[in-house]
Task: structure prediction
Amino acid sequence: MAEPWIIAPVSALISIAAGFYLYHYIKKQDSGTKRMQEISTAIREGANAFLRREYTILAIFVLIMATLIGLLLPTPVWTSENAIQNLSLATAYIFGALCSALAGFFGMDVATKSNVRAASAAKNGLNKAFSIGFRGGAVMGLSVVGFSLLGISVVYAVTNDPTIVLGFSFGASALALFAKAGGGIYTKTADISADLVGKVELSIPEDDPRNPAVIADNVGDNVGDVAGMGADLADSYIASIVAVMILGYTLRDGLPITHEIPLIFAGLGIIAALVGVATVRVGKTGNPGKALNMGTYMTCILYTILTFATTTYLNVNLRIWGATLVGLVAGIIIGITSDYYTSIDRMPAKKTAEISKSGVALNIITGFSYGLHSVFPPLIGIGVASTIAYFLCSSIGEGYAVFGVGMAALGMLSIVGMIVASDAYGPIVDNAKGVAEQSGLGKEVIAVTDRLDAAGNTAKAITKGFAIGAAGLTVLALLAAYREIAGAVDFNLMDPLVLLGAFIGIAIPPVFSAMVMLGVGKNANRMIGEIRRQFSEIPGLKEGKEGVKPDYARCVDIATVGALRELLPASLIAIVATLVVGFVGGIEALGGYLAGSIFSGLLFALLMANSGGLWDNAKKYIEAGAFGGEGSEAHKAAVVGDTVGDPFKDTAGPSLNTLITVMSLVASMFALLIAQYNLLGLFA
Amino acid sequence: MAEPWIIAPVSALISIAAGFYLYHYIKKQDSGTKRMQEISTAIREGANAFLRREYTILAIFVLIMATLIGLLLPTPVWTSENAIQNLSLATAYIFGALCSALAGFFGMDVATKSNVRAASAAKNGLNKAFSIGFRGGAVMGLSVVGFSLLGISVVYAVTNDPTIVLGFSFGASALALFAKAGGGIYTKTADISADLVGKVELSIPEDDPRNPAVIADNVGDNVGDVAGMGADLADSYIASIVAVMILGYTLRDGLPITHEIPLIFAGLGIIAALVGVATVRVGKTGNPGKALNMGTYMTCILYTILTFATTTYLNVNLRIWGATLVGLVAGIIIGITSDYYTSIDRMPAKKTAEISKSGVALNIITGFSYGLHSVFPPLIGIGVASTIAYFLCSSIGEGYAVFGVGMAALGMLSIVGMIVASDAYGPIVDNAKGVAEQSGLGKEVIAVTDRLDAAGNTAKAITKGFAIGAAGLTVLALLAAYREIAGAVDFNLMDPLVLLGAFIGIAIPPVFSAMVMLGVGKNANRMIGEIRRQFSEIPGLKEGKEGVKPDYARCVDIATVGALRELLPASLIAIVATLVVGFVGGIEALGGYLAGSIFSGLLFALLMANSGGLWDNAKKYIEAGAFGGEGSEAHKAAVVGDTVGDPFKDTAGPSLNTLITVMSLVASMFALLIAQYNLLGLFA
Result:
């Protein structure tokens, strides 16, 4: 009989196949009028150009890093008796980066094809358009989990060594970090500039074709939201599987397959997600937001049943299954509480909308305050979930307690295929709306795309909370894995080196956030100048004279160049700081550093994601007619709040998950080397 | 021969005497025209009315708390063989609260007397006006340290037990927390409302007598900035002395006076501050900012010399003196880096001012980003200082390492008399400017008060960084003291209860900040309505018709009632959460909780203080003529940024120091009880 973990690559392949099938389904759909195709081509070309240039830069970085890994890790090649390990690790690293890049590229490609087709289908009502939008997202979701799990399975099958899989994970995460920082800066540069000049200064609607930044804005949705967000969940997904494999590896004497359980559960998660995706349907009068959530719940239930059956069948302790369930439930609860703080029909968004009548400043203060408030439930949720999982599994035996924490992370992330599907749906239908507006498809069609878009926002609030919660448990599992690799040391807060490390670690996520947001500010400032210039220098543009077109390409170029310039420094600093702390302070200092970065990383990720979402919905609440509606003073204030929230929720916030994952992975990769060579260790 | 620590009460008495002397000096000065006296009386009455009502509420709280302490601490009175300890602790607690209240009241009283006299003296130039402003601040500084150290000395002389002094410290800190939250909400409610309607909507200048909120705004400066800030440093000051006494108490076998060293050093610090205060002088053409800083440096140098001589004379290990010096140097470095991020002539403020040309949103994003950036140097500074102090003293013997960390905190705080003096100078001259404007003293006089005010802002940037750094080291010392009391347990981050505690602890400072800032938002919203109503309903008010006066009292009342309503809940939640975590999770969970609250508390304190200061100065930079100067689009954007920063830097930010101090003190007070009775302990 084949080993049970074979279910991982098999379901991964099925997932990829299903993705291909849906991809062809989308390609077959009507791609609309000539004007629509023109717009869609412009978006696709802009997005491809950006990704090409981004990946060129990153390829150089990956090669340098791979060389370093090959030379130094797990131990320097000149001292190592087993140089093949170095080669394996470097290869796994490149392979991981490649998988991440492919998933990003593929997801974006299908997104730029789906948007125009969803817009076209919207002419015939909600039903078909929703299908296209969601299936576009599903291609992304299924290919992300498919490629990720297939990659892990290949590396594991070849090497049979979870620490080599760590290299794969590091490759995927590091690439994801750059892609998210770059995409995040791109998308918000374009979005903010287009809004500030278009909506605020000239009072022309969003996605108006007169706005020179409108194509750049649509490109940004794809390179930022689609490619970036897919990479985000993929990297937590991979990292959680790897972390649990490493934690399980030390327990393999107890149960030979312990370290393969994460692979098995991940495979089952894919099957559950496939079924979940297949069941998402909306009637002609149906509610698309509900349909998305039903798909998620369906996936969860199926996953619970499948894993229970498998656990029993394989004679694995049911407490391990219980830990997974704890994670899954915590993920849903965290998602629901995030939803409360950001949702358009809840108190925080409404109060923020109301106080906007008294001006911008109070809108900002209030939205930010609710954002601060919103960190409480998820932080408690992560803490409680990890504690329950810990104690649930601690009675199985030595080492199982932290393994349980890892399984909880895995539980949260196992349904990630479905999560990414409903999350990627958002920017696709957002773009569909943009295409519809620019190609003048009429009010009714735009109303349909509006409804699709609103459902995307609801789904997004839940999935974002979910993503951060999952990242939180994952990095805790990674911290435990790091400790395991480094030799089961303790991180005692009363040890001054641990504390020093923690103080430095706390400071990294805010500094990283500052750097990428300042990047957005600088670039947006430049692009605003360009948009103002075009409106004042191109005759007839402002008035919308027939045949007068802005120079879209110029804005696309500013966003591209700016994002590429800013994407490396912030991310590199985080990697370099991790190595400096490790090689100077040693294993304990690095442990404190990781813990500190987890604390402040989660804090700011939640704060920024939620306050950003809240400002967005406060604005939408006013646009729906409250407090004077569109054009009122309250609305103007709320638009500014929304703009402040843009880089919070789409640039800095979502990169932080990946940042702390990358920092933890770097630490684990270098742990053995750091244990041997560190400055303070030399003195001791 | 008397015991060496007698220097503490003696220098405290001298300090109080010097304060009285300066108080009478100020009272003798000319209090200006009738109109000026009218305004000054209105401010004083408003401030007194607020304090009276605030203290009435707090007295009830203090009595309830004292009863609980008397019944339960250190061990329940019905199980205790030594009930006198319970009584002592409760009495010390009340005494501490009383001292804090007195220092706040006295400081505010002199501040409201100094402002009008400084304004009057400004008619004759800078020199005399500066003297009055600074001496007013010095009364505050000298009485704060005097009362604090005298109180500690009395409690210690009577009980000879540092754990009873802990009760004194808790009383002082808890009262300070409420006073700061209440004062902070008051001052920003008035400030924001006055600015938003006056400056932004109607374009009338600041401190214009037509504005119905102008008196409330001036009252706010006194109840918020003067009384609040004095309480802030006083509570860190007392807590650091107590923490080091407790840490030293376990070492008294090594050197009998170890636990009295903090008293001796604090006494020497007062002497140094007295000399420092006496040397602050500014010539007719002199630079007041420089004069303030020179006073601080003078105090530092003198303190270093005095403590070195005493350490040698008493045959105390010089490494202990070294640790103090480390703290002092770190405090200055942290102050200087804060100055970089907030100062009007540095890059961050200038860049933020420049980007304001592109609108409010980019001003907010940029200022907030630099605020995020600014947390890095001080966090590293606190981490490095504590590590150096630790290793410096660890070779003296077991237990001396953490004692060294405490001594570093003490080193930072020993010069607090001088720090408070130059800090309280700020709101006094700010008020002097307000009085000058409202009573029409002419352009030249206002220009003098402007210069005095600018110097206050420079000094404030440094002292604020200093205060946060000092609080950081103090809470670390308190954490060590808590651990000592709780029985030298370890707080291992891989222990799930420590981790759970940490996750909860991290969440408390943001939730607290959210609550007080939402309080400001709500109250300001109410007051804005009232100001708009007065301008529209009182005929001739907007136009400044002779004899037409707004209803100042109504605004004062709104600010008072609102602040009183909001001041208890946020602070109580922090105390209650600490007890819940302790009595449910036990000693280790509470240790993690404290560490978590320290991490996020410092993070947000720095972020909010610095971004708030930065926004303020970016606005001032534009007002000085850059980027279009006053009235330009850039200026309008910068005014909004400044308003957002107001509750950051004056409500939430500065309360966070006190919050984490209070949480640490509660933990230490209840440590013995928690070790005996906790829910999870019952199951274990």
Notes: DSSP finds 19 helices and no strands in chain B.
